[in-house]
Amino acid sequence: MPKRVLTGLIVSDKGNKTVVVNVERKVKHPLYGKIIRRSKKYHAHDEGNEYKAGETVRIEEVAPISKLKTWKVLDRVNTHATPDRVDVDA
After folding, report:
1. CA of 79: how far to CAs of 25, 32, 55, 84, in Å?
2. How far apart are CA 44 and CA 21, in angstroms?
3. H/E element holding 16?
4. Residue 73, SS3?
């Protein structure tokens, strides 16, 4: 069975080797049909204390590491990437 991989925003990096990642998803309300946002926080393992609050990261489900941690940080998601410049000859 494949491991789940989620993308979210780090909201806290206060713990040693631990970050708290807020994962947001959009779901349709069962009665009214409006799209609403649902979020959940996951404690994820960060071995080198290299990730900081405000970064967008991918986390992967792993075997339990501690009481709250069953996820580990895979890598950063580059949200500030700028596309290569395209010159248009007009």
Report:
1. 17, 33, 9, 15
2. 7
3. none
4. strand
The first and second tokens of residue 27, run together, are 């779901």
- Residue holding tokens 């789940």? 4
For residue 35, give the H/E element and its range. Answer: strand 35-45
Nearest CA among 15, 7, 89 for reference residue 52: 15
What pLDDT does residue 1 have? 75
Read off the tokens for 56.
Answer: 């967008």
Q: Is 54 left (phi over 0), alpha (psi -120 to 50) or beta?
A: left
pTM over 0.85: no
